[in-house]
Design brief:
It is found in: Cell membrane. Part of the binding-protein-dependent transport system for D-xylose. Probably responsible for the translocation of the substrate across the membrane. This is Xylose transport system permease protein XylH. It is a single chain. The chain has helices at residues 2-10, 12-31, 39-48, 50-63, 73-90, 95-118, 124-143, 153-160, 174-200, 208-230, 237-255, 257-267, 269-274, 279-305, 316-326, 338-358, 362-385. It has 387 residues and is mainly α. Helix 5 runs parallel beside helix 7 (124-143), helix 6 runs antiparallel to helix 7 and helix 15 (316-326) runs parallel beside helix 17. The two termini are 24 Å apart.
Length: 387
Protein backbone atom coordinates (compact mmCIF):
# COMPACT_ATOMS: atom_id res chain seq x y z
CA UNK A 1 0.00 0.00 0.00
CA UNK A 2 2.87 2.38 0.82
CA UNK A 3 4.45 1.64 -2.59
CA UNK A 4 1.17 2.51 -4.29
CA UNK A 5 0.80 5.76 -2.36
CA UNK A 6 4.40 6.74 -3.12
CA UNK A 7 3.97 6.12 -6.85
CA UNK A 8 0.68 8.03 -6.98
CA UNK A 9 2.20 10.97 -5.13
CA UNK A 10 5.33 11.02 -7.29
CA UNK A 11 3.39 11.30 -10.55
CA UNK A 12 0.06 12.60 -9.33
CA UNK A 13 -0.67 14.68 -12.43
CA UNK A 14 0.08 11.96 -14.99
CA UNK A 15 -1.70 9.29 -12.94
CA UNK A 16 -4.66 11.62 -12.63
CA UNK A 17 -4.75 12.09 -16.39
CA UNK A 18 -4.62 8.32 -16.91
CA UNK A 19 -7.69 8.04 -14.71
CA UNK A 20 -9.32 10.80 -16.78
CA UNK A 21 -8.57 8.87 -19.99
CA UNK A 22 -10.16 5.76 -18.48
CA UNK A 23 -13.25 7.69 -17.35
CA UNK A 24 -13.64 9.35 -20.77
CA UNK A 25 -13.29 6.00 -22.57
CA UNK A 26 -15.85 4.35 -20.29
CA UNK A 27 -18.23 7.29 -20.74
CA UNK A 28 -18.07 7.12 -24.53
CA UNK A 29 -18.21 3.31 -24.41
CA UNK A 30 -21.60 3.58 -22.69
CA UNK A 31 -22.91 6.52 -24.73
CA UNK A 32 -21.87 5.03 -28.10
CA UNK A 33 -23.09 1.54 -27.10
CA UNK A 34 -19.65 -0.05 -27.36
CA UNK A 35 -18.53 1.52 -30.65
CA UNK A 36 -15.46 3.32 -29.30
CA UNK A 37 -13.70 0.11 -28.19
CA UNK A 38 -14.45 -1.93 -31.29
CA UNK A 39 -11.26 -3.15 -33.03
CA UNK A 40 -11.97 -1.11 -36.16
CA UNK A 41 -12.47 2.10 -34.18
CA UNK A 42 -9.32 1.55 -32.12
CA UNK A 43 -7.32 1.32 -35.36
CA UNK A 44 -9.08 4.45 -36.64
CA UNK A 45 -8.35 6.23 -33.36
CA UNK A 46 -4.63 5.56 -33.82
CA UNK A 47 -4.59 6.75 -37.43
CA UNK A 48 -6.80 9.79 -36.87
CA UNK A 49 -4.79 11.18 -33.97
CA UNK A 50 -1.23 10.29 -34.93
CA UNK A 51 -0.58 13.90 -35.95
CA UNK A 52 -1.60 15.15 -32.47
CA UNK A 53 0.97 12.89 -30.78
CA UNK A 54 3.70 13.95 -33.19
CA UNK A 55 2.99 17.66 -32.71
CA UNK A 56 2.62 17.30 -28.93
CA UNK A 57 6.04 15.62 -28.76
CA UNK A 58 7.72 18.63 -30.37
CA UNK A 59 5.53 21.16 -28.55
CA UNK A 60 6.54 19.72 -25.19
CA UNK A 61 10.16 20.53 -26.03
CA UNK A 62 9.14 24.10 -26.91
CA UNK A 63 7.28 24.49 -23.61
CA UNK A 64 10.33 23.23 -21.73
CA UNK A 65 12.35 26.20 -23.02
CA UNK A 66 10.45 28.34 -20.53
CA UNK A 67 6.76 28.15 -21.37
CA UNK A 68 7.22 29.01 -25.04
CA UNK A 69 5.10 27.53 -27.82
CA UNK A 70 5.19 27.30 -31.61
CA UNK A 71 2.13 28.90 -33.20
CA UNK A 72 3.20 28.03 -36.74
CA UNK A 73 2.79 24.24 -36.64
CA UNK A 74 -0.71 24.20 -38.16
CA UNK A 75 0.40 26.33 -41.10
CA UNK A 76 3.53 24.20 -41.56
CA UNK A 77 1.37 21.06 -41.67
CA UNK A 78 -0.78 22.65 -44.38
CA UNK A 79 2.25 23.90 -46.30
CA UNK A 80 3.91 20.46 -46.20
CA UNK A 81 0.72 18.79 -47.44
CA UNK A 82 0.35 21.38 -50.20
CA UNK A 83 3.92 20.79 -51.37
CA UNK A 84 3.31 17.04 -51.45
CA UNK A 85 0.18 17.54 -53.55
CA UNK A 86 1.80 19.97 -55.97
CA UNK A 87 4.96 17.91 -56.53
CA UNK A 88 3.47 14.39 -56.48
CA UNK A 89 0.21 14.98 -58.32
CA UNK A 90 0.71 18.30 -60.06
CA UNK A 91 4.29 17.65 -61.25
CA UNK A 92 4.34 13.85 -61.16
CA UNK A 93 7.57 13.57 -59.16
CA UNK A 94 8.68 10.43 -57.35
CA UNK A 95 7.13 10.06 -53.88
CA UNK A 96 10.40 9.58 -52.01
CA UNK A 97 12.05 12.47 -53.82
CA UNK A 98 9.14 14.70 -52.84
CA UNK A 99 9.42 13.63 -49.21
CA UNK A 100 13.12 14.53 -49.23
CA UNK A 101 12.28 17.94 -50.70
CA UNK A 102 9.57 18.54 -48.08
CA UNK A 103 11.94 17.63 -45.25
CA UNK A 104 14.57 19.92 -46.73
CA UNK A 105 12.07 22.78 -46.81
CA UNK A 106 11.05 21.98 -43.22
CA UNK A 107 14.67 22.22 -42.10
CA UNK A 108 15.01 25.62 -43.77
CA UNK A 109 11.83 26.81 -42.04
CA UNK A 110 13.21 25.49 -38.76
CA UNK A 111 16.42 27.44 -39.33
CA UNK A 112 14.28 30.53 -40.00
CA UNK A 113 12.26 30.10 -36.80
CA UNK A 114 15.13 28.97 -34.59
CA UNK A 115 17.54 31.59 -35.96
CA UNK A 116 15.15 34.48 -35.44
CA UNK A 117 14.50 33.34 -31.85
CA UNK A 118 18.03 32.38 -30.82
CA UNK A 119 20.16 34.77 -32.89
CA UNK A 120 17.98 37.89 -32.99
CA UNK A 121 16.13 37.39 -29.70
CA UNK A 122 12.69 37.63 -31.29
CA UNK A 123 10.09 36.36 -28.75
CA UNK A 124 9.02 32.84 -29.80
CA UNK A 125 5.32 33.68 -29.98
CA UNK A 126 6.08 36.62 -32.31
CA UNK A 127 8.49 34.65 -34.52
CA UNK A 128 6.16 31.68 -34.87
CA UNK A 129 3.10 33.91 -35.33
CA UNK A 130 4.89 35.52 -38.25
CA UNK A 131 5.68 32.08 -39.67
CA UNK A 132 2.07 31.06 -39.17
CA UNK A 133 0.92 33.93 -41.39
CA UNK A 134 3.71 33.48 -43.94
CA UNK A 135 3.19 29.78 -44.51
CA UNK A 136 -0.58 29.90 -44.34
CA UNK A 137 -0.33 32.41 -47.17
CA UNK A 138 2.27 30.16 -48.80
CA UNK A 139 -0.24 27.30 -48.74
CA UNK A 140 -2.73 29.43 -50.69
CA UNK A 141 -0.01 30.36 -53.17
CA UNK A 142 1.07 26.75 -53.72
CA UNK A 143 -2.44 25.36 -54.13
CA UNK A 144 -3.89 28.29 -56.15
CA UNK A 145 -7.41 27.20 -55.30
CA UNK A 146 -6.77 23.54 -56.28
CA UNK A 147 -7.36 20.64 -53.88
CA UNK A 148 -5.12 17.73 -54.84
CA UNK A 149 -6.54 14.24 -54.30
CA UNK A 150 -5.66 10.62 -55.16
CA UNK A 151 -2.09 10.43 -53.88
CA UNK A 152 0.24 7.55 -54.87
CA UNK A 153 -0.33 4.26 -52.98
CA UNK A 154 3.15 4.32 -51.42
CA UNK A 155 2.37 7.74 -49.93
CA UNK A 156 -1.00 6.65 -48.54
CA UNK A 157 0.69 3.61 -47.00
CA UNK A 158 2.38 5.96 -44.51
CA UNK A 159 -0.90 6.45 -42.64
CA UNK A 160 -3.61 4.16 -43.96
CA UNK A 161 -1.47 1.05 -44.44
CA UNK A 162 -1.07 -1.95 -42.12
CA UNK A 163 1.98 -4.12 -41.61
CA UNK A 164 1.73 -7.48 -43.43
CA UNK A 165 1.11 -10.70 -41.52
CA UNK A 166 4.17 -12.84 -42.20
CA UNK A 167 2.48 -15.89 -40.64
CA UNK A 168 -0.74 -15.84 -42.65
CA UNK A 169 -3.23 -15.58 -39.80
CA UNK A 170 -6.83 -15.86 -41.00
CA UNK A 171 -8.92 -14.56 -38.09
CA UNK A 172 -6.11 -12.93 -36.11
CA UNK A 173 -3.09 -10.92 -37.27
CA UNK A 174 -0.34 -13.08 -35.76
CA UNK A 175 2.52 -10.66 -36.48
CA UNK A 176 0.75 -7.92 -34.52
CA UNK A 177 0.25 -10.25 -31.54
CA UNK A 178 3.92 -11.25 -31.61
CA UNK A 179 4.91 -7.58 -31.63
CA UNK A 180 2.68 -7.04 -28.60
CA UNK A 181 4.29 -9.96 -26.76
CA UNK A 182 7.74 -8.62 -27.67
CA UNK A 183 6.77 -5.20 -26.30
CA UNK A 184 5.70 -6.81 -23.03
CA UNK A 185 8.97 -8.72 -22.72
CA UNK A 186 10.99 -5.56 -23.38
CA UNK A 187 9.01 -3.55 -20.80
CA UNK A 188 9.50 -6.23 -18.14
CA UNK A 189 13.23 -6.61 -18.87
CA UNK A 190 13.79 -2.84 -18.75
CA UNK A 191 11.99 -2.53 -15.41
CA UNK A 192 13.87 -5.53 -13.98
CA UNK A 193 17.16 -3.94 -15.07
CA UNK A 194 16.15 -0.59 -13.57
CA UNK A 195 15.17 -2.28 -10.31
CA UNK A 196 18.47 -4.21 -10.16
CA UNK A 197 20.45 -1.00 -10.75
CA UNK A 198 18.65 0.73 -7.87
CA UNK A 199 19.32 -2.18 -5.54
CA UNK A 200 22.98 -2.19 -6.58
CA UNK A 201 23.36 1.38 -5.39
CA UNK A 202 21.18 0.67 -2.31
CA UNK A 203 18.33 2.91 -3.44
CA UNK A 204 14.76 2.34 -2.34
CA UNK A 205 12.73 -0.02 -4.53
CA UNK A 206 9.09 -1.05 -4.46
CA UNK A 207 8.00 -4.34 -2.94
CA UNK A 208 7.84 -7.48 -5.05
CA UNK A 209 4.01 -7.78 -5.02
CA UNK A 210 3.64 -4.18 -6.20
CA UNK A 211 6.34 -4.66 -8.86
CA UNK A 212 4.70 -7.83 -10.18
CA UNK A 213 1.25 -6.24 -10.16
CA UNK A 214 2.53 -3.20 -12.05
CA UNK A 215 4.12 -5.38 -14.73
CA UNK A 216 0.96 -7.45 -15.04
CA UNK A 217 -1.14 -4.31 -15.51
CA UNK A 218 1.18 -2.84 -18.15
CA UNK A 219 1.43 -6.11 -20.06
CA UNK A 220 -2.31 -6.61 -19.84
CA UNK A 221 -2.99 -3.22 -21.42
CA UNK A 222 -0.42 -3.84 -24.18
CA UNK A 223 -1.81 -7.29 -25.00
CA UNK A 224 -5.42 -6.04 -25.01
CA UNK A 225 -4.44 -3.18 -27.34
CA UNK A 226 -2.50 -5.38 -29.77
CA UNK A 227 -5.23 -8.04 -29.69
CA UNK A 228 -7.79 -5.39 -30.66
CA UNK A 229 -5.61 -4.33 -33.59
CA UNK A 230 -4.93 -7.96 -34.56
CA UNK A 231 -8.66 -8.68 -34.61
CA UNK A 232 -9.12 -5.98 -37.29
CA UNK A 233 -6.38 -5.62 -39.91
CA UNK A 234 -3.27 -5.63 -37.76
CA UNK A 235 -0.94 -2.89 -36.65
CA UNK A 236 -1.12 0.40 -38.60
CA UNK A 237 2.18 1.50 -40.14
CA UNK A 238 1.74 4.96 -38.64
CA UNK A 239 1.61 3.45 -35.12
CA UNK A 240 5.15 2.14 -35.53
CA UNK A 241 6.33 5.56 -36.73
CA UNK A 242 4.64 7.37 -33.84
CA UNK A 243 5.94 4.86 -31.29
CA UNK A 244 9.50 5.34 -32.56
CA UNK A 245 9.17 9.13 -32.33
CA UNK A 246 7.83 8.96 -28.76
CA UNK A 247 10.48 6.46 -27.61
CA UNK A 248 13.37 8.36 -29.22
CA UNK A 249 12.34 11.73 -27.81
CA UNK A 250 11.61 10.25 -24.39
CA UNK A 251 15.09 8.73 -24.37
CA UNK A 252 16.66 12.04 -25.40
CA UNK A 253 14.91 13.99 -22.65
CA UNK A 254 15.42 11.39 -19.93
CA UNK A 255 18.84 9.93 -20.68
CA UNK A 256 21.01 12.41 -22.62
CA UNK A 257 22.94 15.59 -21.97
CA UNK A 258 20.75 17.42 -24.50
CA UNK A 259 17.67 16.55 -22.46
CA UNK A 260 19.26 17.69 -19.19
CA UNK A 261 20.28 20.95 -20.84
CA UNK A 262 16.69 21.52 -21.95
CA UNK A 263 15.34 20.95 -18.43
CA UNK A 264 18.06 23.24 -17.05
CA UNK A 265 17.03 26.04 -19.43
CA UNK A 266 13.40 25.54 -18.41
CA UNK A 267 14.19 25.64 -14.70
CA UNK A 268 16.35 28.77 -14.78
CA UNK A 269 17.73 30.09 -18.06
CA UNK A 270 20.21 32.49 -16.46
CA UNK A 271 21.57 29.83 -14.13
CA UNK A 272 21.85 27.41 -17.07
CA UNK A 273 23.85 29.99 -19.03
CA UNK A 274 26.17 30.60 -16.08
CA UNK A 275 26.77 26.86 -15.76
CA UNK A 276 28.06 26.74 -19.34
CA UNK A 277 24.94 25.68 -21.24
CA UNK A 278 24.46 27.45 -24.57
CA UNK A 279 20.81 28.37 -24.13
CA UNK A 280 20.60 29.98 -27.57
CA UNK A 281 21.70 26.71 -29.16
CA UNK A 282 19.06 24.84 -27.16
CA UNK A 283 16.36 27.21 -28.43
CA UNK A 284 17.58 26.93 -32.00
CA UNK A 285 17.59 23.12 -31.97
CA UNK A 286 14.17 22.92 -30.31
CA UNK A 287 12.46 25.11 -32.91
CA UNK A 288 14.31 23.48 -35.79
CA UNK A 289 13.10 20.14 -34.45
CA UNK A 290 9.53 21.43 -34.12
CA UNK A 291 9.42 22.42 -37.79
CA UNK A 292 10.58 18.96 -38.88
CA UNK A 293 7.98 17.25 -36.69
CA UNK A 294 5.30 19.62 -38.05
CA UNK A 295 6.25 18.52 -41.57
CA UNK A 296 5.96 14.85 -40.53
CA UNK A 297 2.55 15.54 -38.96
CA UNK A 298 1.44 17.34 -42.13
CA UNK A 299 2.51 14.40 -44.28
CA UNK A 300 0.73 11.94 -41.98
CA UNK A 301 -2.49 13.97 -41.94
CA UNK A 302 -2.47 14.55 -45.70
CA UNK A 303 -1.94 10.84 -46.37
CA UNK A 304 -4.76 10.03 -43.97
CA UNK A 305 -7.18 12.40 -45.76
CA UNK A 306 -5.85 11.53 -49.24
CA UNK A 307 -6.23 15.20 -50.12
CA UNK A 308 -4.87 18.62 -49.27
CA UNK A 309 -6.56 21.99 -49.02
CA UNK A 310 -6.00 25.41 -47.52
CA UNK A 311 -8.09 24.41 -44.48
CA UNK A 312 -5.68 21.71 -43.31
CA UNK A 313 -3.92 22.52 -40.06
CA UNK A 314 -6.51 24.89 -38.59
CA UNK A 315 -6.42 24.45 -34.82
CA UNK A 316 -3.56 21.93 -34.84
CA UNK A 317 -1.38 24.13 -32.64
CA UNK A 318 -4.22 24.35 -30.11
CA UNK A 319 -4.55 20.56 -29.89
CA UNK A 320 -0.78 20.15 -29.47
CA UNK A 321 -0.49 22.83 -26.76
CA UNK A 322 -3.55 21.50 -24.94
CA UNK A 323 -2.16 17.94 -25.03
CA UNK A 324 1.07 19.10 -23.38
CA UNK A 325 -0.57 21.03 -20.55
CA UNK A 326 -3.20 18.36 -19.98
CA UNK A 327 -0.32 15.85 -19.78
CA UNK A 328 1.45 17.76 -17.01
CA UNK A 329 3.67 20.39 -18.63
CA UNK A 330 4.51 23.11 -16.11
CA UNK A 331 7.26 25.54 -17.15
CA UNK A 332 7.05 27.24 -13.74
CA UNK A 333 8.46 24.10 -12.11
CA UNK A 334 10.53 22.86 -15.05
CA UNK A 335 8.39 19.75 -15.39
CA UNK A 336 6.98 18.00 -18.40
CA UNK A 337 7.68 14.71 -20.13
CA UNK A 338 7.11 13.12 -23.50
CA UNK A 339 5.01 10.41 -21.87
CA UNK A 340 2.92 13.18 -20.32
CA UNK A 341 2.40 14.70 -23.77
CA UNK A 342 1.35 11.24 -25.00
CA UNK A 343 -1.23 10.98 -22.22
CA UNK A 344 -2.54 14.45 -23.04
CA UNK A 345 -2.73 13.55 -26.73
CA UNK A 346 -4.73 10.44 -25.79
CA UNK A 347 -7.21 12.63 -23.90
CA UNK A 348 -7.58 14.93 -26.93
CA UNK A 349 -7.79 11.96 -29.31
CA UNK A 350 -10.46 10.11 -27.34
CA UNK A 351 -12.49 13.30 -26.99
CA UNK A 352 -12.24 13.97 -30.73
CA UNK A 353 -13.16 10.42 -31.64
CA UNK A 354 -15.94 9.98 -29.11
CA UNK A 355 -17.65 13.26 -29.88
CA UNK A 356 -17.38 12.61 -33.62
CA UNK A 357 -19.09 9.24 -33.19
CA UNK A 358 -21.83 10.98 -31.22
CA UNK A 359 -22.24 13.54 -34.01
CA UNK A 360 -21.25 16.51 -31.83
CA UNK A 361 -20.67 19.70 -33.84
CA UNK A 362 -17.08 20.94 -34.18
CA UNK A 363 -17.80 24.19 -32.31
CA UNK A 364 -19.05 22.25 -29.29
CA UNK A 365 -16.00 19.96 -29.51
CA UNK A 366 -13.70 22.99 -29.22
CA UNK A 367 -15.60 24.21 -26.16
CA UNK A 368 -15.27 20.82 -24.47
CA UNK A 369 -11.52 20.59 -25.17
CA UNK A 370 -11.03 24.13 -23.87
CA UNK A 371 -12.89 23.23 -20.68
CA UNK A 372 -10.76 20.12 -20.17
CA UNK A 373 -7.60 22.20 -20.65
CA UNK A 374 -8.75 24.79 -18.10
CA UNK A 375 -9.58 22.10 -15.54
CA UNK A 376 -6.15 20.49 -16.04
CA UNK A 377 -4.28 23.80 -15.57
CA UNK A 378 -6.34 24.77 -12.49
CA UNK A 379 -5.63 21.33 -10.99
CA UNK A 380 -1.90 21.87 -11.61
CA UNK A 381 -1.96 25.30 -9.96
CA UNK A 382 -3.79 23.98 -6.92
CA UNK A 383 -1.37 21.09 -6.64
CA UNK A 384 1.68 23.36 -6.78
CA UNK A 385 0.27 25.68 -4.12
CA UNK A 386 -0.52 22.70 -1.91
CA UNK A 387 -4.21 23.48 -1.54
Amino acid sequence: MQDLKAMLKKRARQNGMLVVVLVIVLFFQVITKGVILRPMNIANLVMQNAYVIILATGMMCCILTGGNVDLSVGSLCAFSGALCGLLMIGKGLNTWLVLMIVFGVAILIGVWNGGSIARFAVPPYIATLASQLIFRGGTYIVLKGVSYTTYPPEFLMLTTGFIPDFFGGKTLHITTMLLGIAACVICVLLDVKKRARKRKYKLEVSGVPFFVGRQALICGVILWFTYSLAAYKGMPVVLISVALIVLIYNFILEKTVAGRNLYAVCGNRKAARLSGINDDRVLFIVYLNMSVLAAIAGIVFTARMNSCSTMIGNGFEGDAIAACFIGGASPATGSGTILGALIGALVIGVLNNGMSIMGVQSDVQMCVKGLVLMIAVVFDQMQRKGR
